[in-house]
From TrEMBL:
Similarity comment: family membership: Belongs to the short-chain dehydrogenases/reductases (SDR) family.
Pfam families for the chain: adh_short
Name of this chain's protein: Dehydrogenase
MF (Gene Ontology): oxidoreductase activity
Keywords linked to the UniProt accession: Oxidoreductase
InterPro entries: NAD(P)-bd_dom_sf, SDR_fam
Transmembrane domains' residue ranges: none
Domain of life where this protein originates: Bacteria
Lineage start: Bacteria, Bacillati, Actinomycetota, Actinomycetes, Mycobacteriales
Length: 299
């Protein structure tokens, strides 16, 4: 039986992935979520909650190694003005810092040959043409405290878009930094940054203004989205995104040699190059080290 730990498994395509994984009958799945229920409590906007969740996972497993770690939760906000209890910009803290900390805390528990999947977005790459403000940098201090960023857009919506796309650049860089570590390679651990494409109708937009939430929900309807998907391969259905996630997590699909970035395009997994910045080894190393400082871990 495989043992998996997952965030972002209670709604959207993550919930569909969980349903399929649990239906297989040979997976022990530990979920982290706000709502509790069958999941262990986890508030990604609080680093202390992340630490408590990691400790609870360790206690529940009792030494059983983790075969797959799925860091799928995320959010997008309409500005960059929100702060977590730790004082960090919320989008960056939830999408990157919390998952980085959880990864670091659970890394010693990963089994030989384990898989780590971090959900990213094609919006990290300006070449995708997604229409959102592309990331200008992956500077942890400026992303954690955007009020210090001299290039911060004074338009709240654009600043919020940058917070999101930059956090997703950090996700790809984290996967690349992880895959480059000797200890990770020695254990045969696979790191994948997974872009599900544009998947309407998920909970990603729940913190946006009401009119954007309505549009997001409407575009999630098969009747509405089907014509658009015919012309834009970055658009995918929730079932397709969930199934692709399962294929990556279960090892049914393995990355080609040297590839870390998986992008779902037209319902099919592809392995393109990420953005130029995401391919920079110096940025990946800096992000790993500087993120450790922010969460209080050694680099």
């Amino acid at each position: 039986m495989s043992t998996m730990v997952m965030t972002g498994g209670t709604s959207g395509f993550g919930a569909l992935a969980v349903e399929r994984l649990q239906g297989s009958g040979d997976v022990r799945l530990i979920l982290g979520a706000r709502g509790g229920g069958d999941a262990l409590p986890l508030e990604l906007g609080e680093l202390e909650s992340v630490r408590a969740f990691a400790a609870a996972v360790g206690a529940e497993l009792g030494g059983t190694p983790v075969d797959a770690l799925v860091l799928n939760a995320g959010l997008v906000l309409s500005d960059a003005a929100h702060r977590t209890v730790d004082g960090f910009e919320t989008t960056f803290a939830v999408n990157h810092l919390a998952h980085y900390l959880l990864l670091r805390l659970l890394l010693p528990s990963l089994a030989d040959g384990a898989t780590v999947v971090l959900t990213t977005s094609g919006t990290h790459d300006p070449a995708t043409g997604a229409g959102l403000t592309p990331p200008r940098h992956a500077d942890t201090v400026l992303l954690a405290h955007p009020e210090r960023d001299p290039g911060l857009d004074n338009r709240p919506r654009k600043a919020g878009e940058h917070a999101y796309t930059a956090s997703k650049l950090c996700t790809v860089l984290t996967a690349r930094a992880l895959s480059g570590q000797d200890a990770v390679r020695d254990k045969g651990i696979t790191a994948i940054a997974y872009c599900p494409g544009q998947v309407f109708g998920t909970g990603l937009a729940k913190d946006l203004p009401w009119y954007m939430r309505v549009a997001w929900s409407a575009m999630g309807s098969p009747v509405v989205s089907w014509p658009a998907r015919r012309f834009d391969r970055t658009l995918n259905t929730r079932p397709d995104a969930g199934n692709a996630l399962v294929e990556l997590v279960s090892g049914d699909v393995r990355p080609p040699e040297g590839r870390v970035y998986a992008a779902l395009r037209g319902g099919e997994l592809t392995w393109p190059d990420p953005s130029d910045d995401a391919l920079r080894d110096d940025l990946a190393r800096e992000l790993w080290t500087e993120s450790a400082v922010l969460v209080g871990l050694p680099g």
